[in-house]
Amino acid sequence: MPTVITIEGDSPYLLPHVDHVSAIVHGENVDLTMYVALPGHADLEQVYVQLSLPAADDLLAQLTRAVAETKKDRSEP
To answer: Per-block average pLDDT, block size 10, for the chain (77 residues)?
Structure first.
């Protein structure tokens, strides 16, 4: 059974470090798994987020733009 994470305070919420991610199909949704360094935990913890298809598609577009911009910024002198 998954552990419930309680988020307190106002957003935005910061996950200090995400080591790697994976995504798999789950019915009509996409399950996103992030391995996250959480305060007070010695090891990386798995955090699952279930995304609707429109949310997953939107995330893909935003990540594609952000990665391209990051690569462009790194290649400029």
So the answer is: 76 82 96 88 87 96 94 81
Say how far apart CA 15 and CA 37 lie, in whole Å. Answer: 7
Per the structure, the complete domain to which residue 30 belongs is given by 4-74
9, 26 contact by CB (below 8 A) = no
Indicate which CATH number applies to the domain containing 11: 3.10.450
Domains in the chain, number = 1
Residue 18: which of 46, 42, 3, 37 has the closest Cα?
A: 37
**Which residues, at least 6 apart from 13, have a Cβ–Cβ distance to it below 8 Å?**
7
User: Which of 12, 15, 11 has the alpha carbon at shortest distance from 47?
Assistant: 15
Q: How many CB atoms lie within 10 A of CB 59?
A: 15
